[in-house]
Design goal:
By secondary structure, the protein is mainly β. It is built from no helices and eleven strands.
C-alpha cells in the first residue's frame, strides 16, 4: 500500500510487513510492524491517528505520533477494503463481497 497522504502524514506499507510514517517534510517519524499482515486497503484518518484494516481480518487503530496500537477488532473474516467510519461503527468489505460492520476499536 502506498504511499498514502493522510492529512500532514504519508504512510507507506512495505513488502516485509512494515508501516512507515513520514511528516510533511519527508522525515520518517516512525516505523512499526504490520502485526496482522498486509493491509486490505487505504488507512482511514481518525482523531488520534489512523485506522487500518488487514487482509487477515483485523481492524486496528494506531497513534499518529508513535505508531503504537491503540485498539483492535478481530472480524474473523478475510478483508478486501480499507475501513470507512460512520458514527461509532466501522465498515469494511470482505473478500466474499460482504460488508461487515463493527464497533470502532
Amino acid at each position: 500500500m502506498g504511499p498514502a497522504a493522510i492529512g500532514s502524514y504519508v504512510l507507506l506499507a512495505t513488502d516485509d510487513d512494515q508501516l512507515l510514517c513520514f511528516d510533511a517534510k519527508g522525515e520518517k517519524l516512525w516505523q512499526a510492524p504490520l502485526a496482522y499482515g498486509p493491509l486490505a486497503g487505504a488507512p482511514l484518518p481518525v482523531e488520534d491517528g489512523f485506522m487500518l484494516a488487514s487482509a487477515s481480518g483485523v481492524i486496528a487503530r494506531v497513534d499518529a505520533k508513535a505508531g503504537k496500537e491503540l485498539g483492535k477488532v478481530e472480524t474473523g473474516r478475510s478483508l478486501a477494503s480499507g475501513p470507512a467510519a460512520m458514527g461509532g461503527n466501522v465498515f469494511v468489505a470482505g473478500t466474499d463481497g460482504s460488508i461487515y460492520e463493527v464497533k470502532q476499536p
